[in-house]
Amino acid sequence: MADQQSGGGSGGGRGLSRRKFLQGATTAGVGGLVVGGAGGFVAGRGSKSSTNTTGGTGASTEPILIGSASPVTGPFASDGQQMVRGQQLAIDEINANGGLLGRQLKLQVLDSKAQEPDVMKNVLQKLVSQNVAAIFAGFTTYTSVEFPIVAQAGMPMFHVNTWHGNVEYVQQNNITNIFQGDPSETSYGSGFITLVNQFIDSGAWTPSSKSTYVVTSNDPYSLAIAKAFKAGMEKQCWKTLGFEQYTVPQADYGGQLVKIRNNPPGIVFFSSYAPGDEASFIKQFAESPTPSLVYEQYAPSIPEYLDLAKDAANGVLWSTVVGVLAGDDRAKAFIDKFTQKFSRPPGFSNAGDQYDLVHLWAEAAAVAGDPFDFAKVNAAVANTVYRGTCGAYSFLPGTLTCYPYPDETLDPSLGMAHLTFQIQNGEQVLISPDPYTTGKFELPSWLR
Amino acid sequence: MNDASRVGKLPKLSAGSRLGIVALIAIVAAVPVVYTNHYVLTFLVTALITLVLNTSWNFVLGIAGVWNFGMLAIYAIGAYSEGLVMLHTGMPAPIAVLLGGVAAGAFSVLLAFPTLRLFGIYTSLLTFSFAQVVQFVIVNDPKGLTGGSFGFPTVKGLYPNLGPLAQLRAYYWTVLAVVVVATFAVAWIRSSRLGIALRTIRDAPAYAAARGVSPLKYRMLAFAISGFIAGVAGGLYLSYNQSITSSVMGLTPMSIDVTMLVIGGLGTLFGPVIGTGLLTFIQQALIDYPGVQLSILGTILLIIVVFVPGGLVGLISRTRRRLSNWVEEDETALPTTEEAARSTEAGT
Amino acid sequence: MTDAAPILDVRGLWAGYGDSIVVRDLDLSVGAGQTVVMIGPNGHGKTTFLRAVCGLIRPVRGEVWLAGERVDGRNPEAIAGMGLVHVMQGDGLFSDMTVEENLLMGAFPTTSWGARQGALERAYGLFPLLRERRGQRARTLSGGERRLVGLGRALMREARILLIDEPSLGLAPVMIDTVYGAIREIRERLGTTILLVEENFTHIGGVADVVHVVEMGGIVRSGSLEELSNDRTVVETYLGSL
Amino acid sequence: MSQIVAILISTLVLGSIYGLVAIGMTLIYGTLRILDMSQGSMVMIGGFVAWGVLVVANSDPVVALVAAFAATFVLGTFTQLISVQPLMSRRSDLDFEMVTFITTFAVAIVFSNLALQIFGPFQKDVPPVISGSVSIIGQNLSYQSLAMAVTSIVLMGALGLFLARTRWGLAIRAVAQDLDAARTMGVPVGRLYPLTMGLASALAGIGGVFLGAQFFASPTAGDLPLLEALIVVIFGGLGSLSGTLYAAYAIGFIQSAAIVTIGETWTLPVLYGVILLVLIFRPYGLRGNPSEARL
Fold first, then answer.
1. ipTM, 2 decimals?
2. What residue numbers bound the domain in which B88 lies?
């Protein structure tokens, strides 16, 4: 350790001693670091916030900053990438058409990882501190603990967490600026059951037994949907033969399939966000199928699912409460533009949804006349009926979430279509609801 | 070498160093008065909570030398216990935080038993397995107590009645106080009988056994203490964020925490402070480049471990030693004109 | 005979571990066919000296010349490749490998690997015990057997010089005789140049051409065994009784 | 009956996967005393190479295996050179196992995030090396699984022979047992260490090619195999090749049996539970050497 006795005594006539030199240098260095660091930090913050405040007054030519809190790394990275691409495409279009109220838009992407509470808070605080005009969050926490940050700051935030808890939080706290850009997951229970009953009533399909076997990954999204489905089916007196949770990724389904094959259920319901897992499952199922209708949740919406599952996927049913309307001209145009820009087609949910939401917000902001007059913009959003690539967006008062069509409204011009697809000959065929359908349900080959 | 005479005392510091520490605490404590930016304060509070966790982890990993990679599970157990206590008994938050710490300490002691017979890498794998089991239990909780993968149901924080800025400041100071207390506690323990015993068990197990130093007793104590501190950190996390998900104990957070410890200097007193501070700064600086963040952190970790093995604290103390040698050389040398000239040259 | 260039020539060698210097300014040379013995008490740098010569530790200062080439600073595998064979203190056997595998490792360098079968036969011829034990794992051998494996392994390739570190260490007297018998065999039948380190004079009779007495990391006295054993001060101070 | 067959088939598949990834880890631990956390990345990279060769270049499986072997061999060597070699000379001053555990882990983080940047987050399909399947009492066994099992066992055998019979194999074992002595025999450790790690990584890379058809290629494809290989190597005892082989199939069996009998949800906890028990009652695994764990 350096001894602390007063030094420099031997300095005398030798000029600067090493000790003195060191002391001087240290003082200067530390002082410089503190002053410089603090100054730099303040200056950095200051200049950033000042650009944005001038931006906020509306008279500037600075680009308008848009925040994106998307899971670009971590387990939901494939969704995150779709989201960011959808947002970017919409912004590029708006910019190419002269921008919003004459100003260009600029996307600031932050990583929401696995939506841990601290990460979400950090990311949203950062966006709020930069005074962004709007926030496009893909997923959020299921406990809404980060919502107050945005509620307080006032700018509109759009998310697609698809969770009734989030919208109930919005309603209970009278929040006016947090919108869920799709219906909640509770629709999954009712939607598919209605469809199953239609199949049975029309004679298109006769169940081998009134029973289901449910496999789900244990992430909230898949789990919530699986539970909604199970509850809904049980209400209709269907027996649940198995309810299995697993942790992504899983590639070997030997054990599950033994159980399924030993006691074949009428419906196999598989819910996971990981396309590889569901593709593996259907491939292994197809090796020796049981007389069961196979419903796979969510993952088939990701284009890679078909690449991975190939022919094995033919006959699989899946649905989404938010999805690009495959046969629709508006959607086709979007798909073309997306494919051109990113040299891959978009998935069926998140890219189109975020693309729509950015456009929806931009129109509302234009109506409000100033993207930074948050109260006006939020009111405009709340009153909007917007027809996008995923159907109609209109927000239920109070919960600020989209209506599902046909589950809660029979008016397709107001409700967001709850889509059910069947994969036929390697193509996604939209079999429900009308008027958006592009084909009809067919019995899978193993049931014919 | 005069450890024995200093048992139970804080490490001897010069007046200057003591003044420096007090000044540092004062400066850090003043931050929320000067900066009111909510974003900065939000991540600083999170960083301070992480620092509490890292302080306890450093104690086990660096000072006791037990490769405990189950620390994040202990941290989570603290948080979930606190939450359960609050939800089901209506206990006030500050008491619940302490109870969470106690629960975490208890689990930590349980974990200490099987590690006794293990060495090195096996310990890390055992504790890591423990963490995995805890995570699975939390996620797949059949009774719905933990909220599963949805995250723990929202709880009231420590300061539910304050406004946003006041809340941030209150949390900041609360957690800072815990950091200071935890750091001093670890410093004190390090030079206490317990600390010396732990270091003996770590560095010379045979000698420790010969002297009758019981690994069972001391390791359990070490685990209990570190578990308690980590549990309190978890409780602070839950209170501050009002919720927690099991992904806070995933591989990515773990690698970031380990990086912080290693960069700062494992087993040193101020390593966690420096590591946590630096990495938080880097993470926030890279927040606009989410894709490359982890690659850069990985690279930094690699470089530090390879080229600066003792971490930054090790580097600083080595530099200080070299400088003081340099000064001593100067002062003990005969003041020949030649040397005087050289030192002046070096000085300018 | 001493006119020829020495096989090993060490000049002003300083070596040690970290901050502690154990070998100080040591000069030594070994001529072709000679057996040179270094004698001295424990902890005075003999082993360190050998480790520095063979490259396992880097000398702090000084030069090491092997057959006219300067080798200090090179790594041990390179020096081994030049024909320096080191029988380490405590044998350095690979304890989970069999006797034969241990011997084969002695022939590792490319130049000797091709001739390993012949070398194996030669080693077995010299030490028949090894043939009996060929399939046994080294960890199951007795101390004397281990030492013989170590010596046998040293014969697996052409040695310009053989460094042997305390061959009598930890052995029962009977085994010491066997081991020294083996060393004598090597010296006489193969004519190998040897640098040997021992703690005392007891066993080196009839082996040593030149003896150096080492103290505190330096050579304090040199001469033939006979000269030194007639030197009263040496005998009294360092070596006790003969 | 069909349950038992299913369990056995699943055991064969899982055990072979674990074996392929864990052999390399064991080899590296045996020689370098390093728990190489970058082995998972090698599985991931092997998968991407297979995807590149089979799908992008539309070439055949043999090329894929060779390319994966080569690529992961080079990267494994490189990993050793940047994350382990610089520490070798300071081996005695460091907690070497711990430090290299961290450095190889750091390399793994970088590799998987670079893969995320280069290939994107999506999984890529890797076609099976061999297609088709055979039915055993109503249960399917794909040729791919069979090939994987055979490859795994053949590679294990070949590795065993290599270590027992060849010059470099002996050298690897010698270095593992006494570094200084091996160096004085002329073993060039500066080259041997990187080559050993390259070889081990290449085994994991081959594993990745087979796994690609099952798990697909993605930046995180190596995470699970890494965790499972860790379980296997502890169970078998670090550094013991035969122990690793037994452990791979034992773990595969426990996992398959757990899935079939008590369900998927609790399979991994059961596995970790088994490991906890093994470590409590046999602290050095089935075949581990207690003295090795103390280094």
1. 0.83
2. 4-249
